[in-house]
Design brief:
homodimer; about 100 residues; mainly alpha; Chorismate Mutase Domain, subunit A; 3 helices; about 85% helix; about 0% strand
Amino acid sequence: MTNLSQTVLDVLHDHRDSIDRLDAILIYTLGERFRHTQAIGKLKAGNNLPPSDPDREAYQISRLENLADEAGLDPKFAKNLLNFIIQEVIQHHKKQQL
Amino acid sequence: MTNLSQTVLDVLHDHRDSIDRLDAILIYTLGERFRHTQAIGKLKAGNNLPPSDPDREAYQISRLENLADEAGLDPKFAKNLLNFIIQEVIQHHKKQQL
């Protein structure tokens, strides 16, 4: 890094500061999202509903692909990310039904 | 679902509406985050910097674990999610350096 100009390092630093702030938004938003999925998990467990709901998941994925397109995000990445989050949620729901 | 009371369905519906709004926040925040990582990718490619930066990644993961803890999110899940996002970013950086 010693041969890089200070300008390059400053620009890199500014981008990283923005990323750190955006990551805080992501984590707190996910915290809020899990509060709702936990409530749904309890509701499902208390009413003998299955942990996963393929119709709802298909709706979410199709909606997120459109949102990703609008937000300039790779729709494939958005789909994979949502699947990653949904799998985590389903694991939590299954634990609640044991 | 026919035997469920309307109240249960209404509560489920309200939680799902909140989740849909939170997912829009997540997608748009990720869109903004990728704008910054793309700029970093160009900066790295133009200055012969390696696509990945293990010190920066270790800092981010440690910071996110603390944030997750504050936000009531499972720190292990936050760590796995950040790794998932970072791997996607590194793939993009590598493509920019070809």
